[in-house]
Amino acid sequence: MGLPRFAKPKATNESSPNLYVANCGPAVGLDFDTIRSVFGSYGEVSGVYSADESGTRVIVSFVENSAAKAALEALDRRPCQELGGRVLHIKYSVFQPPVEKVQVNDSVTVCLETSDMKIPGLCLIHDFITIEEEKELLAAVDSRPWKSLAKRRVQHYGYEFCYETRNVNTNQYLGELPAFASTLLDKISSFEELSNSLEMGLDQLTVNEYPPGVGLSPHIDTHSAFEGSIFSLSLAGPCIMEFRKYTDGDWRLKSLDSEVENSDCSSSFLKRAIYLPPRSILLLSGEARYAWHHYIPHHKVDFVNESVIRRASRRVSFTIRKVRKGPCQCAYPQYCDSQK
């Protein structure tokens, strides 16, 4: 399927059904559904797309030129209360022929809320932190050394995760979690949806930095390595996370650094997908944590239903877990390395 590509905004007043809108997009806290809703008050919107990889500029495409003109005249260079009071900078734009072809999401519907996923134990909180808090967290990790892997960079706190064994060495304690992690734990405890799954003594944090096009191959976090719930905070850029649950026993724990997403060897699995916007936090507990493989497709572009979202220049995730000191005795032995 060819992806739509747009020219830079025109400097003239020539009419077009496509508007280039600056100071607007996921990187400034505005999701595509909200943008569609606001612009939709001026006429039927056929699509909202990322204009580039910054996440701060979008293309809003209308069905009719007159609707685009009405939106431009009403919103250009004026504070829009429905979009957080942001002052938008709007010009006309035009389509260019498609320049690349990709397959994304394998036609699976991308959910925006975990209630639509129908996976027990999964919970997503939007806007878990503010834009200012996001900047502070990114500055905190960028002031510390990164470890380079094949395609991304990582930082480990509490205990180091060993990708070769998909486990941790409990004899190699790195020290207490940094102050910025303690702040996150305090915030988690303030959300009822998350605090019920907050185990005492979360003691391991992995920070991942993903450049565009880099994701994670399908895996279940090793049962014998971590106990209880897993929290994952998304910063800087959006992505889609997909989930698979195998129903015929044909499943494999994948290396986090596998070069190939090849777990489609079995057709006997359930599949779900969810959009993770910046500053959201995802909880995996119970069945979602122990029985479902999760992964991030290795794409530079994601389709979120009718919208095209280009990955940002970076995405940073904070994964917070509790290291297990004994064998796992969960209720999902078919997926459990301690019980196989």
From TrEMBL:
Q: Does the keyword RNA-binding apply?
A: yes
Q: Which InterPro entries match?
A: AlkB-like, AlkB-like_sf, ALKBH4, Nucleotide-bd_a/b_plait_sf, Oxoglu/Fe-dep_dioxygenase_dom, RBD_domain_sf, RRM_dom
List, for all copies, the residue spans of the domain called Fe2OG dioxygenase.
201-324
Highest taxon above the source species: Eukaryota
Q: What are the entry keywords?
A: RNA-binding
Q: Where is the RRM domain?
A: 17-95
Q: Does the keyword Metal-binding apply?
A: no
A GO biological-process term: demethylation
Q: Which Pfam families match?
A: 2OG-FeII_Oxy_2
* MF term (GO), any: oxidoreductase activity
Family (UniProt): Belongs to the alkB family.
Q: What is this protein called?
A: Fe2OG dioxygenase domain-containing protein
